[in-house]
Each structure stands twice: as C-alpha cells, then as structure tokens.
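User: Hey, my collaborator sent me this sequence without any context and asked if I could get a structure. I don't really work with proteins. Can you help?
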Amino acid sequence: MPSAFVLASDVYPNFGAVGGSGQLASIIGALLTIILIVAVLMLIVCAVTWAVAGAHGNVHAASRAKAGVWIAVGSAALAGAGVTWVNFLLHVGSTL
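Assistant: No problem. I've predicted the 3D structure and written it out in structure-token form, which is a compact way to encode the shape of the chain:
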C-alpha cells in the first residue's frame, strides 16, 4: 500500500473550526420554518382560489390557482426534506 494512502487515513474534519456553527444551524432552522409557514398559507389561499374560480367558471384563474397549489405543495415538501437532510448531515458529521 503506498504511503500516501496510509497518511490520508489519519485525516479527519474539524467541526469545531467554524465559529458560530450553532447560530448558523438555528438561522437555517428558522428560515426553513418560515418557508414551511408561507408554503402552507399559500396552499390554503391557492386552494380557496381554485375552488371559487372553478365554481364560477373562470378557467384561467382556476388553472393558475391549481399551479399555485402544486408549487406550494412542492415547496413545502422540499423545505421539509431540507430540514430532514440538514439534521441527517449534522448527525452523520458528529459521528465521523
């Protein structure tokens, strides 16, 4: 085995080197929470708009509201997956 591979096996990341990493994690958590709240509110607004526009026969507004519902669902799913992904990475990073 070459000596470069043996020396590289003793290299580990220094997770304490970044100052304010705890504050960064809380800021990211707060931003993702705000994104989830806005996505749920937009989901409610778009769903109500879709229902009202569909009931009154306004096809253009109903199709726009339907697109808004799907975008709100997608953004809420991505934000929720982002929280899960960040928590997973923080857990894996602390066990290295």
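In plain terms: The helical segments are 3-8, 21-56, 59-95. You can pass these tokens on to your collaborator as they are.
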